[in-house]
Amino acid sequence: MARKKQLPAPTDLWVGWTHLVEPFDNLTDPSVAEVPMLLSWLRTRSPDMESVLVTIFELQPLILSSAVRNMRMSKIEIVSLLMEVDNVAPREQRFRVKRRFLEVIEAGNMLGKFVIPIPYVPAPLPPSPMSPLQHNNILAMAGIRPLLTAFSESIVDAKVLSPAAWWGKALLSAMSYGGLIKTSFLMALPDALKRAEPLMRWLELHLPTQNQNTNTRIMRRWFPDPVSRMIFCKQRIHGFPELPILDRIASRQVYKLIRAYAREQGFDHCMPNGIKEIATGLKTRLHYHFPPWLVSYANDDYPNTSLPDWSWQHVLKPPTCYVTSLTSRLVYPASPGPNPDDESDDNDDRHSNELTEWPAQLKELATVIHGGHANLAGRIDAWRATVIPDRLPSVSLIGEWVAEVLLKKGRGRRPKKRRTVYQMVNCIGGRLVGQLGRMDLTRLDTASAYVEIYQNALEDTPSILTRRKVARSLNSLHDYLVKTYQVPPVSESGIFVVSGRGQGKVDANFIGLDTFFSALNWLRQEGKQKFSQKVVNQLELIGSLGYFCGLRRSEAIGLTLGDIEYAQGQSQLFEKNNPPDVWLEVSQNALRGLKTRAGHRMLPLSLLMTPIELEKILHWHKTRRTEDPRPSAPLFPDFIVNGHANDTDPRLDWITKSLQHIADDETLRFHHLRHSFASWLTLLLWYGEQNGDVSLPDWFLPTRHDQKRIQMSGIIRQGLIGKAPTNRRTMLQVSALMGHQGLDITLTSYIHLADFILGRMVHRLVPRLTDKQLSDLSGYSVSNLYALASGLNWKTASSAQWGQFLEKIADQMANEGKHKKVVTVKSTVNFYKPIAIKSTGNQLDRLLHRAQALGKSLWPNTELQDISAQYGIDQSELLLWINRLSTLPSGILNIPTNHLQQSLDLKLGPAMRKLAIKMLDTLTDLHDRGDPLIGKRAATQKHIQALIEEFPLIWIPGTYLTVKTASLPQAKRWLWFLTHLELDDAATITHEKGTGKSVPSKAAQLDYWTKGLSNRTVISSDSIPCQTNSATRGSVQINLNLQRTNTPLNPKKVTVLYGIRFTLAILRVVGIQTRSDILRPFP
After folding, report:
1. What CATH architecture is 513-751?
2. pTM confidence score
3. Strand pairing of 203-208 and 217-222?
4. Are the C-beta atoms of residues 747 and 731 closer than 8 Å to each other?
């Protein structure tokens, strides 16, 4: 037996450390500040505590001394020491020892012995959940064992089955081997098989919600086990049979289908009495193979967190091009949930006040509401009328909302009861006021700013019930803001979707490494044209902290220089192969608060960040320390306003914009960087626990950057948790690094690769089959199977290796017997070269894409080869466009010449853009259909081409869209164009007479133009006569007065006409050749 460590005999120990053994009542009494402890007393009372003190003595000997004064330690040093104390303390006493250790430190601080920060107050681990291996559950698992044995022997039987029996076989296989134990999931399987992807690697189960008033369905992605895949693939050749309806109740329907199969195979005597017994036994069996959180996910104890289809496709093939126009995505409507007026739902929200400290002003409002039922509206009005100079805008707004919405009768709405009013204020008051401070919620500019604030308020709700209440209250408040203050609506964002079980859609999204780095690359490229290089660097680092460390946006911009600390004795010189041990502390400071106490956390940057990103942030940290050495100085000073972190700075939206346009996903937000951190970390910790026994499929996260990240999983897992195998601590570690109050919050909203992990773990459930059984099931000869095994001895292989071998067979069967197509790993993207731009959307977006390429070609020291690669345009075309651009009259396009980087003015306002789109749509329609008044379609196309070619020649410089021509065909073409744009009634035609010998009279000239222009009103001008020699009949000037038109242009300002002028001029440069497709409809 190992001997316990002992302190050396003459050790000087302060008597305060006896508090670790038994409570010391006078710990802060100055009379005991330098009293020593008797070592013999310690050894007789608690040898275990002596081992703890030995550990402290080995690391920090001075801290134990009775004579020490003003001893200093950094936060990271005290946290490290506390971790060592936790390791050596007796298991059942760890919480008590850590708590008393910090109480001794705090007392020493008060007595002047120490100057040591208290990093946190330790909280005990939550009580262990009740074991799933209860007696009844074990009996249920034993009860289904004969059924599973008989089923595994029957699956290879090639006998023809009835439709009911085949579906019973499929459903029982999915339950037994695929972890699909919920009846609702099984009932969605037939429809999922009809629209399965070709290789059947996954199936999308569309599940109905519990809300009967909507057709919304929640999609759950299920990765079938290899045995079920083989059953499905084998049947797909002949077509899946129709599902017979044996019972209207889903659970009975599933049970009767399974019983039909058991009856035809002759083992119906093995069937339990109902589907509940089968599901209970299978769930208990899962606990022998899966971690508890994964069993809970399989059992639908947590909301479905599957990625939407477009985000899942990005996992398989990460996008690396910038798209100019975002694809519109379907947003699921929020489930209405229980009626907020239902008093039965009005349980006390005990957790709301724990989330944030309420300001005194908000407490005053709560006190007014609490004052009783009588005259509540009058009391609120009196509170609002009280003049308080420093009342926070957010508190005033909440009071206004209470008075104008909650307590007023409206159409289809009755005043809320006092209890309901208090609950609605209670659940959002602290969450909003704590975030906003002195900011006015009515003055935010964009919908994304509101979404970010509401998401922060919704994120850390401790239960589904609380989240539902917060969502309802925020929805009501924002509706009032939209109606009263005309703030941007946020309904399309889906922010108020309740993420409760079966109640709504979780805001799921995931960003791969290539996508994220491509977004940063685009941010570097485009940001430097808008902001200084210093601001661009900060935006890049803020995004990296969100992605690699899971920081909220407000947490990242509110960091200080003192929040980044090097471990004791670590060199600050950066080496890629041996980066320093650096930690980031997320704590409350003068720049911003934290949402919850759990938000205070320590993050190991050296483990979480890639070496390149770690080097960047440490270099920035070093630069900032030379600028301002104070530990309290902000890490990102450009986002600090009046001493506070400005979370609504519009420049921060560029991080979101770059992500959205790289991923072509308008639903992406900054907060999804945090979702990606949680999903990535869960995947890495799970994969690190497999000890190389599990291999990931080559189609999953296939790029080299992703693969390299996955290869680091063992190091990351060992650094965060250690080498010991564990199930429970893994997810607790993820939750702690996220700063969540509980594991439920992490599992209900953030882990979006749980279904994939579940799909790999079910390999442990598939049965061992003999050579002949496997040959009968797959249809392949034994020799063929040995060839597929590639030397694997499947009879001695682990369960994971056996499952992966069956996946190979299933892949070949799904590929209809052909050799499986090799998935080529995507080449590494050079994220420091200009990123390629993909033009999508309408004609104007395509045109702007080409104009942007042309504009960048004008920059000095620019290689056309780079522009060609970035925009996908041939160099020969770029050269042609540059030459054409030089022929345009000066001023037709706004090209600043006093800027080092010239660029075309692409800033079309909404009205300009709307008019330009209408013009292109009109020309496209005429180009494709023709105009009967012109002739055949080819004649109309020539008409359009002539119009575009001659526009720069007839445009009058210095005007928005005024033209002047001495040619009657040109004037007719221009008026024809205006007629199709519905702007002809705004046209004013002025005639300037021609001069010279043998010219007709002024009246004859005017008559010529009037009749030639279909008897339009032509005004004679008394200005200087036309000087054109050939203009024997003078010329006409056509101007546009938008105030005269009936076309609904808003606003009716002449500046909107620049949209037409810009578009016509760019068409003349890039869009008139036959190779161009600008005037053709796009798919």
Report:
1. Orthogonal Bundle (1.10)
2. 0.68
3. antiparallel
4. yes
